[in-house]
From TrEMBL:
InterPro entries: Znf_RING/FYVE/PHD, Znf_UBP. PROSITE patterns: ZF_UBP. Residues 2-100 form the UBP-type domain. This is UBP-type domain-containing protein. One of its GO terms (molecular function) is zinc ion binding.
Amino acid sequence: MTDCSHTSTIRQVTPSARGCEECLALGSPWVHLRLCRTCGHVGCCDDSPHRHATAHFRATAHPMIEGYDPPEGWGWCYVDEVVVDLPDQTRQLGPIPRYV
């Protein structure tokens, strides 16, 4: 695992939505999804138009995300700016709608 001072914040979470919460509300497309491993918020990646996962980090300071859809098997710490190995992967709630 890459050195990260926030791995203790990784939790087992329930995803908050079957897609980016905010994009679903806006009717906006996304590219990939990121899952907050502190609270379960599902947001879109920085290649998406609105970058909701990063916005969630800025609003909450929850440091760890998981590459969620497609399941990518990695984590990212926003604070330390490093990829981390996750102790587990979060199961998806079901089929995720595709927009891009």
